[in-house]
């Protein structure tokens, strides 16, 4: 056996690659461990069950769920167009769809404010009709949708490209309409990717801060989500901020791990 053969690890990867991988893993795990070690466990239940904390958690879960529904309603058609269409300017459309991924959240909040605010491009017309969006719970949902939508589009577009079109072509030759092909063939084929994208969107919406604060403000029970509550508590009670941060981490981990397990079982 040659020396090079002896150095190959069972995974087929070069041995050196595990060193930066381990460092990257520690970079993620150590801060979470440090936060866990700093929790005041004697007051933990009291801190996370205060009226403001429960209201913020309930609002975060409710608005994140609503924004995830919007992400699915808008993101599925967007991903389908980006992956299945071919026309001039498609790359520009893709760049615009993914722009919120690289925009600072506060910039997204300002953009939403100048669109749906009282004097905004659309908001001024809504105000005439008696509809106010800025600094309401609806504003929270719109802000979360704005920053979370690209996560679903990216995940689903990748799944659609990987799946190919042979099954769709086969169904079309058998007489199925485009709508039937999309509903009965395309969506079931990329369901794990859709679930993963929806979960990523939910997790991103759950942790949204900058756009929400800029566009919706911080009104308890109305627009103050859990990240905003953590930020405010950090100024007055660091122990409460750490405890609430742990709750947010646990919720995110449960959602992501559970969804990945479901998605892996859904793979045909």
Question: What does it look like?
Answer:
With 268 residues, this protein is mainly alpha-helical. Helices cover 75% and strands 0% of the residues. It is built from 14 helices and no strands. The chain has helices spanning 3-6, 18-37, 44-48, 51-84, 90-98, 105-116, 123-128, 137-163, 166-173, 178-189, 191-206, 210-216, 226-236, 238-266. Helix 8 packs antiparallel against helix 11, helix 11 runs antiparallel to helix 14 (238-266) and helix 13 runs antiparallel to helix 14 (238-266). The radius of gyration is 22 Å and the shape is globular. The mean pLDDT is 88. Keywords: Cell membrane, Membrane, Molybdenum, Sulfate transport, Transmembrane, Transmembrane helix, Transport. Residues 57-259 form the ABC transmembrane type-1 domain. Pfam families: BPD_transp_1.
